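step: validate -> pass
step: tokenize input -> pass
step: predict -> running
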Amino acid sequence: MMRLLKISITLSICLFTIFGCKSQETEQNRPNIIFIFADDWGWGDLSAHGHPYIKTPNIDRLVHEGTDFQRFTVASGVCSPSRTAVMTGQFPARNNIDGHFAWVQNNEERNMPDWLDPATTLLPRLLQESGYTTAHFGKWHLSNNMIPDSPSPGEYGYDEYGAFNCSGEQMPVHEDVNNTIAFIEKSNKEHKPFFINLWMHEPHTPHHVIPKYQWRFPDLAEADNIYASVLSHADDRIGELLDAIDRLKLTDNTLVIFSSDNGPARAAFEVKELKLMFDSATGAGFNTSASKGVTGGRKGYKASLFEGGIGVPFIARWPGKIKAGEIDNTSLISAVDLLPTFCAIANVTLTEAYKPDGINQEATLLGKEYALRTKPLFWKFDSSWPAKKNAPDHWVSYAVVDQNWKLVANNDLSYFELYDIVADTYEKNDIKEQYEEVSKKLISSIKQWQQELPKEPSKKLFSKERKKK
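step: predict -> pass
step: emit ->
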């Protein structure tokens, strides 16, 4: 009897060793994913993209060691809907999130919920349920700190988080990378793959300036000095993150992506006075007069659906997988593609019930194909019409991209422009008169898409402050 027991125990240990090690090895081989999402960082705000005085050596390192995808677009010209698209893989209008989350009255006036539904299909939860450890550090803004009863980031599929622009305690903006590195070290000790949304504050207002970074740019005018210094500080923190990944020998098995939630902010008038402002989530800093971001020649800025508002940096590094030192100025990748793409890379199967607006772009990231996009992209944003004199490129309320065509239209679709977005990145040549049938088809597709959108948000996504009314 004892002999049989010993044989049974030995066999159990062997089976555990074989299958346990195999399981652990499989988990360790699944790539880590770090998605760095900056806030208002313009396409041209990189030294690698030719900026005349901003220095970003660490992001430039990602450019040299990875691929610079120069035709990436986000799903909105402003923060909250752009981030919603990353989290859900769907156009933000499907969630009635067409603008930034603010206080309850403002959300109600714009027919918006007070937060993103935590019960919907979410990227971090999909990865978490598949065995990844998940974390969020940095800006949230899928609700607002002014709505104290909104769900915390921890209810969206994260094992750990530190955030601002959310309910509860506000994480200091410059602690984002320190927290990220600590989480990576912990996950590495546990031999688990990790997914991290690192959503940095820079260069959103208020501009929180530290003197040692200002000293790097002594010859610049004050506003330009402030802007360059905050970006330099962010770039330094990204460098600390990359160094930590190297130190832990995780570089070859970690996909790192740098991008931005929308184009750069600009002061409404260039002569606007430079002064301090206060934000309840992040504290005191300089106002938008120090917002000197550039778009690399693209039309419009933040809050525009022209390429200056939605065309942002997108640099991906994964040594041995993604080509190093490449520039891809052909592939039309969208923020709604990130959920299906990250899930494919992580070997996570999406359910048939889930219908993403995005597509799996894994092959594109790996440089295996440069196909013209065949699944249309749609945008919705409440813009003034006719255009304001101080914001001539901020009148577009609807936009659609289908293959090489981009059509932009005002709020009632009575005025529109058509561009060949592949040949005309800077949207200089309106060709609607030459291609009337294309324009009709795209206007029709917008109308059809409008019919798919919900008329109003679910009441379960309302703050108790709204319910009191």
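step: describe -> Residues 31-375 form a domain with the Alkaline Phosphatase, subunit A fold (CATH 3.40.720.10).
step: cleanup -> pass
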